[in-house]
Amino acid sequence: MKGFLGVLPPVLLLDPMLRVWLMEDIGRGDRTTQSLLSQHHTIVQARWVAKAQGIIAGLPIAARVFYLLNDQISFVPLKAEGDPCQPGEVVAEITGAWDGLLMGERVALNLVMRLSGIASLTNLYVEKIADLPARFVDTRKTTPGLRILEKYASAVGGAINHRMGLDDAVMIKDNHIVAAGSITQAIQQVRSQIPYPLSIEVETETIDQVEEAVQCGAEIIMLDNMSLDLMTQAVGLIRQQDKRVKIEASGNISLDTIRSVAQVGVDFISSSAPVTQSPWLDLSMRLI
């Protein structure tokens, strides 16, 4: 892994989301736990055990889930964010009142399994090009309501976050070009209105579009769904005309193709696959 890039969301943003998800799961009360356990203050211990190989992400978020239910619960991660795990390894230990542990179990586990799955697949992509200059980048293809956490998990896996939302940067895509009339007109209109220091990225599919984007001063040029031959030609053109322009490759990126794309000489390679295609990393909580 090239380095840990994840920044945890502040509790100001995190806690309201976690409260909603806890209320969704608990509803009017945990019928099972509250019916069976009369002494809710009884202190118990539990362990989180990995059932598959992968990269751990989200344990501090899980700790926050339990804290919101009972601030006396102790959640101790035994793995740092971004650490690998093997089947059978204990990744966290929890001590506290058993009603809090059982009511928070599913929300906390679901989040960590989902985020660890994203981090695990992201890391496979990152490791494919770890010895090359190109960096792996995520996209805005995320689950509504979960973007901030899914992008955190992507960063834990070693990716660089692309823009978090439409306000982060300007990306002129194919439909914007059609609406504006041309790449030149789109860049001119956008540049006259955006605040400093937003950058402008242009999505291109042909060499003519690449040349137009360079001539208009785009800071980043995306080579979208290009063949390796066409991409090689585009990279050569851009480097010759303006070495300051950053180049991003996107479209049909897979574990089988990412290295070949990186060897063309692009700066960034973006893909939604780690978020849209990752399986959950299986974990379980076992009371001691």
Provide a descriptive summary of the structure in words.
Helix 9 (228-241) links the parallel strand 9 (220-224) and strand 10. Helix content is 42%, strand content 18%. The longest helix is centred in the middle third of the chain and has 31 residues, at 98-128. It starts with 10 loop residues before the first helix and ends with a strand. By secondary structure, it is α/β, with parallel strands linked by helices. The protein is elongated. The strands form three sheets. Strands 6-11-10-9-8-7 form a six-stranded parallel beta sheet. A four-stranded antiparallel beta sheet has the order 3-5-1-12, with helices on one face. It has helices at 11-26, 31-36, 59-69, 98-128, 147-156, 174-180, 183-191, 207-215, 228-241, 258-262, 273-276; strands spanning 43-50, 54-55, 74-77, 84-85, 90-97, 135-137, 170-172, 200-204, 220-224, 246-250, 268-270, 283-287. It folds into two domains: 11-124 and 278-287, Alpha-Beta Complex (Aldehyde Oxidoreductase, domain 3); 128-277, Alpha-Beta Barrel (TIM Barrel), CATH 3.20.20.
Question: Poorly predicted ranges (pLDDT <50, ≥5 residues)?
Answer: none
The percentage of residues in β strands lies in: 15-25%
Number of domains: 2
Helix content: 40-55%
- Biggest sheet descriptor: 6 strands, parallel
How far the N terminus sits from the C terminus, by CA atoms, comes to 34 Å
The structural class is alpha/beta
* Total of DSSP H or I helical runs spanning 4+ residues: 11
Give Rg in angstroms. 23 Å
Name the CATH architecture of the largest domain.
Alpha-Beta Barrel
**What is the spatial order of strands in the main beta sheet?**
6-11-10-9-8-7
Number of strands: 12
CATH superfamily of the largest domain: Aldolase class I
CATH-defined topology of the largest domain = TIM Barrel
Average pLDDT metric:
95
Quickly name the level 1 CATH class of the largest domain. Alpha Beta
